[in-house]
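Margin note: ligand = nickel (II) ion.
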Amino acid sequence: MAVREILRMGNPLLLQEAKPVKEFNTPQLNVLISDMRDTMHDANGAGLAAPQIGVSLQVVIFGILNNPRYPDADPIDEQILINPKIKVLDDEKVEDWEGCLSVPGMRGLVPRYKKICYSGYDEQGNARSIEADDFHARVVQHECDHLWGILYPMRMTDLSKLGFTEEVTANLKNTD
Ligand code: NI
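Resulting structure:
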């Protein structure tokens, strides 16, 4: 069990493109995945990308079940996704509130594609391809963005909808 330090916005490692994983089932990769799982759970995150703990590899973990940070979200099975690719299935974008463990204490209204197909590999190296929409699609787009060096404020179109969580919850969210 190892909870790792989560890098915060401003750290240049979060703006780098991560490299693809070339070999599966290695001790290093298994330790990385185990640390990512522990770190995400410790922080009550819906997802975490390897660059957030300072490892520039294309590995993300996400999942949501009774998460206090996202009380209204539908459950998503916890899964590892390695070397992901996203195909947009519908050009429609929808806006919703996001947070990020690398941008602690804040929320922003972010447009994301409503429906996608994501593909990649699980931790054993098995290929997978899954269709997702709404919050599930949003989480995948957010986590994969970390692998391309993009944080959610960089996807926002209206920065007046970026704020501290308590203020957003008390004010902005009630106006939409
Ligand atoms: Ni994030």
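The two ends are 41 Å apart (CA to CA).
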